[in-house]
Every structure is written in structure tokens, then in C-alpha cells.
Amino acid sequence: MSLRLRLALAGAVAILVALSLAALGLAQLFATHVERRAVAEMSVQLDQVLSGLERGPSGLELARPPADPRFSQPYGGLYWQIEEGGDIQRSRSLWDTALDLPIDTLGDGAVHVHRLPGPGGAELLVLERSSTLPVRLGGSAVRAAVGMSAAELTSAQRDFMADLAPYLGLLALTLIAAGWVQLSVGLRPLRDLGARITALRTGRAARMGEDWPLELRPVAAEIDDLLTEREAETERARARAADLAHGLKTPLQALMGEAARLRGEGATDQAEGIEVTARAMRRTVDRELARARTAARAVDARADPSLVADRLIEVLRRTPDGAELEWRQDIPHGMLASLHEADLAEALGALMENAARHARSKVVLSAQEDGDCLRLSIQDDGPGIPEERRAELSRRHARADEAGTGLGLAIASDIAEAAGGRLVLGAEGPGLNATLALPRR
After folding, report:
1. CA distances from 409 to 266, 314, 396 (A)
2. Which letter does DSSP use for residue 421 in this model?
3. CATH of 305-439, one of 3.30.565.10, 3.40.50.720, 3.40.50.700, 3.40.50.620
4. Which of 160-174, 270-284, 301-315, 335-349 has the lowest mean pLDDT?
5. How far is CA 39 from CA 67, 100, 146, 348, in A?
6. 357-405, pLDDT tens digit by residue?
7. When you count CB atoms within 10 A of the terminal residue's CB, does the N or C end of the chain come out lower?
8. What is the model's pLDDT at position 297?
């Protein structure tokens, strides 16, 4: 799972949990608010009940009942009850039941709120008050209570949550979308970091640079330091290879001189052996120099294979092997390979020399773009190489010279691999088709 998706999922879960907790909190706050308003309304109704009391022949009676018609409707949802001593007066809505007020002690004017069972077992919210009647009503203490169905409060809370749910859902979607946008903006430098590393690998950039957010600057600096160290090591390796080559030149020249002396004295076989050995050593040195030089090239190198091929054909037409051949150059002008021109000339020249050496009448050069790859093909009409040998020579680090087929293929393969490509040997008709697959610009 990608970092962005993991953060997005974690953010979405956090938002949903937070909004769920917020919904529960809002529901509880709303229920508390509704209950507080209901108690305030019942307090007014309780005042109406107490103010409507009169003393009649049979005792206390409610001469002026509250105006709400639910007090007069059986099980109407609003109820009042007055208790004086053991005598109980109640609303018509209570019908044949009474409020079972808890046995507690209330001071004069004190108020209690209860949750009690009412008619039919329905839960009621009950406001109870202890009052002392005025002298004209006897001056006795009474317990007055007003109750209402708690189902109304529950229904109001349920309706509130039903109205709130769409807005919470919309808010959740908005917050999740905003979080995704935030992640996209916040993680964009990581995507740019990957693109810059790709540019480094393909040669479109030389360094990471310093234009990074504060958190990524250490990473970019470490990569730049690593590139600097790698370039320094490559330069040192190249210098050592060059020193080795120069150091071997004098002994090789001495060997060739010794071979010439032996040949002059008539020791032709001994001279030939020394010359073969010296030439093999020189080819090996040249090969290692080519590899070291290719590895040290600048990452922004580029070359036009069409121009390089034209120059090489011009040279090869002056050689004994290439003079009698038909050279056909079908590489479109303007194609660019991610390779230094001298390295491309060396690799292409090695393959063209090999083709000139084995071709019977014709050598064809062509090119094809394949995504980020440029395929340069050299096709000759010679005897070719057996398929089993082609596979061996195509393997990395295969030693073509040790197999007796010359060093050109090995040098071309080394240069292609150093540039991030490869050499492919195949056959299309008679002869050998050698293809350099190189990164292109």
C-alpha cells in the first residue's frame, strides 16, 4: 500500500471516528437542552396548577386547570397531581392511575426532577415541588407534580439526529477530500524526489540541488554527496587504468622490438609468438581503457548515430575489407543516443569493422526508437555466428576474444553496458545482425 493511501485511510478513519464522537456529544447536548426546556415549560405549568387551586367544600380542588388540552385527554401525555396529606388530586389525563412519587423530603419551594413510570408503563419526566399554601387555602403543605411523556423527548432527539446526519456525512466527505488534497500537496516533494532521481539515472540532471523542503534537504544532500564520491572514485579508477596502460606501453614496445630482432635473425616462429602475445596484451589494455573512459563520461552526453555512422563508413571504405562492400546507411538524422560521441564511434566502429571483415557484399545500418531505447542495427550478409555461440557472446562478461572471434563484440558490449544498454546478437536472413540497445535522448 502506498504511503499516500495509508495516510488517506488513516485520516478518513480518524475523521469518521471524530465525527461519530461529535454526533454522540451533540445528541447528548441536544437531549440535555430539550430536557432543560421541558423542565422549564413544566415549571410554568406547575405554577399554573398551584395558582388555580381553591378550597372547596370537599377540600382542595383545581378551579382553573392549565390551558393545554392534553391535561384533559386520557393518557394525553401531560399530567398533573397534587397531594395534601393523604388526599390526592390529579388530572383527567391520568385517568385511573396516579404518579408514584418517590418518598423524599423536600424543603418549602424545593424542586425535584424524576423519571417515573406513567400510564400504560410509559416513562415520564416529572417535575415535583413542595409548597406551603396561603392562609386562605388552609396554609398546609402540598406536593405538586407535573409530568410529560419522555417519548416526546426521545422523538425530538431522534429527529434532531436524522436532520444532523446528512450534514455530518457531507462534512465527513468534505474533510476526507480536503485531507486527500492536503496529502497530495504535502507529498508532492516525494514524487518530485523520485522524478529527480530518475533524471539523475537517465542523465537529464547532474545533481539533486537544494530546492527541496526542509525535511528532504538532508536526503538530497546525501545523494549529491554520494554522486560526488562516485564520480571521484570513477575518475580515480580511470586514472589508474590510464597509468596502467601507459606503464605497459614501454614493455610492449620492448617485446615488439625483441620480436623484430628475432625475425631479423631468422627466428620467425619465436618472433610470431611474441608478436601474438604482445598484440593480445595491447588489445586487452585498449579494452580496459575503453571501459574506464566510458564509465567516466558526463551524464549529459549525447550523440547522433547518423553522423557517427557516416564518418565511420567514410573511413572503412578506405580499408581493404570495406572497399569492396556496399554500405547502406538508413539511420534517420536527429536521433540521439545517451552516449558520448567518441564512445558511440568506438562501439559502432567495432561492430562495423567486424561486419566488414565477414560480409560478402553488403552491410546495412538502421535504427529504431523503442520507448526510451534506441536500437542501432548492423546487418551483414556474411556467414554469421552459430546460434549457440551468439547466446554465449551476448552474456555479460563473456570473453569473445578467448573464443577466437575477435575483440570487437566484447568492446561494443562493454561500452553499451557502461551506458545502460546492451548488445544483442541475432540473425535476420544471412549473416549477423548486431544491435546496440542504448538509452536515447
Report:
1. 36, 21, 11
2. -
3. 3.30.565.10
4. 270-284
5. 17, 18, 9, 97
6. 889 999 999 999 988 899 999 999 888 777 666 656 555 444 444 434 4
7. N
8. 53
